[in-house]
Amino acid sequence: MASIFFKPKKKMKPRIPPDLFTEGDKALVAVAGGGTVKEMIREAVSRIGGFERLNIKGKTVLVKPNCVSGEKNPATTNPEVVKAAVEILYEQGAKKVYVGDMSALATLSTVRNMKRNGIKKAAEDAGAEVIVFEDYDWVLVELPGALYIDKAYVTEWIYNVDIIINLPVIKTHRSASYTITLKNFIGCTHLKQRPYLVDSSHWEELISEFNIAYRPDLNIVDGTVSMIEGGPWEGTSAATNLIIASGDRVAADIIGLGIIKSFGKWKMVAEKDVWEQKQIKRAIELGIGRGKDKIKFISGSGDKKFSELMERVRKETGF
Fold first, then answer.
1. Distance (Å, rounded) from C-alpha 196 to C-alpha 73?
2. Is the per-residue pLDDT at 55 higher than 90?
3. In angstroms, rounded to a whole number, what is the distance separating the alpha carbons of residues 7 and 40?
4. Using CA atoms, how far apart are residues 154 and 108, in angstroms rounded to an integer?
5. pLDDT of 1
6. Which of 47, 202, 245, 296 is deepest in the core (most CB within 10 A)?
7. Domains recognised in the chain with CATH numbers
8. What are the DSSP calls for 25-72, one per residue?
């Protein structure tokens, strides 16, 4: 009942910090494979400029994983990735790290889900405080340029911290085609505004339009195990053993789409050019992310399997 009759706490402008992970006029996106989870995160981020660009020392950080349900990775973000990310943030001098999300309407409560999928324990073991957005207030943010929705109700936690780290997983989705960095923001929006309740015929475009409300400071994408068919609750998985890092959501999503498409199992991705995905096209139109000629892709180290996967990704993305 509280969710139905809520009132937003205040009205705020979109939270849009600059993309610090660029080179000239191009957004940087890097992939690292092999080694431990922490090593892959460090390498991927270092190849786009390093955590140092965020000037984390003394700041508060929100880490936003995918906790759509209580199912384990890859339906949700790998707890090992959550733990490693939190540890690195503290090593970089973060004052306080929070790990927060809100699950889908059909699977609440979020805290129960975080216990089931291991995210809560992993976050707390690394020293983070776990928060669930349904327990906090909501903020109204107008969405200039949107066609299908004019305002968003987003968690106050978008404005309660200095830095936001987006920590999604690579996976397919039966209604949104796929879910990576752009779709991960839906967990920060009020349940009344989930895309299927707003306009199910423009589900994918709505995902991008909600992203007008904010820009994460960094996207670290969990590709330790990727869902390559089915979703969002369960599906076929592949041990891809990699991490993607970028300040640009389109750049990160394009690489994830290239990975999904390379397996050829999910028609909603396999039968369409990655640049023609509705989430991608709308995000570029809105200036949320950059187009192909404004993105630099950097492939890191890895074994033969990783190198072969990256070759397929280059083919599918045009990089």
1. 24
2. yes
3. 42
4. 17
5. 55
6. 245
7. 10-317 (3.40.50.11440)
8. TEEEEEEEESS-HHHHHHHHHHTTT-GGGG--TT-EEEEEE--SSSPP
Tell me, what's the pLDDT at 196?
Answer: 80
Three-state DSSP state, 223: strand
Query: What is the rounded CA–CA span in Å between residue 10 and residue 103?
Result: 23
Q: Which amino acid is at 285?
A: E
Identify the burial level of 275 via C-beta atoms within 10 angstroms of its C-beta, where 0-12 means exposed, 13-18 middle and 19 or more buried.
Answer: middle
pLDDT tens digit sequence for 101-121: 999 888 889 999 999 999 999
Other C-beta atoms lying within 10 Å of the C-beta of residue 83: 23
Distance CA(207)–CA(223), nearest Å, equals 21
pLDDT tens digits, residue range 70-80?
A: 999 999 999 99
From 21, 29, 35, 30, select the one nearest 224 (Cα to Cα): 35
- Determine the residue type at 12: M
Which tokens in the block code for residue 179?
């879910």
Beta bridge partners of 151: 142
This prediction has a pTM of 0.97
Q: Which residues does residue 219 pair with via DSSP β-bridges, in sequence order?
A: 166, 246
* Bond before 79 cis per omega within 30 degrees: no
Residue ranges with strand state E in the chain? 10-12, 22-23, 26-33, 60-65, 96-101, 129-132, 138-142, 151-155, 163-167, 171-173, 177-179, 218-223, 226-230, 235-238, 242-246, 295-299
Residue that has been written with the tokens 């020392």 in this structure: 57
Contacts (Cβ under 8 Å, ≥6 apart) of 76: 65, 66, 67, 68, 69, 70, 113, 117, 119, 169
